[in-house]
Write a structure and sequence with these properties.
mainly alpha
Length: 101
Amino acid sequence: MKGLRDYESYLMQNYKFPEDTFGAKLSNAIALMDEEKEVKKEAKEKNEELHTLTKETIENLTDEEAKQLLNEKWIKPIEVGIKSLVPQYFKDLEVELKKTQ
């Protein structure tokens, strides 16, 4: 053990404090923080793995797959947006015409 802080952590992890005491609550908090640290580490590793696999997948797309992906990601949403503008435009025009009558 390096110092007082390590000794304190050792005690918190290895000594069974009576229920509902400050020591028990502190020990529980330390255990939860350790667990959170491990979960965050695992999440970071999984995120890096996902990033690597995604990059490899994108780099290995055929030209046809790349065109299809671009179409799904960019072209189709633009088409849908344009198509939705036309009916709204005519509705707005109809409202304006009715206002002038």
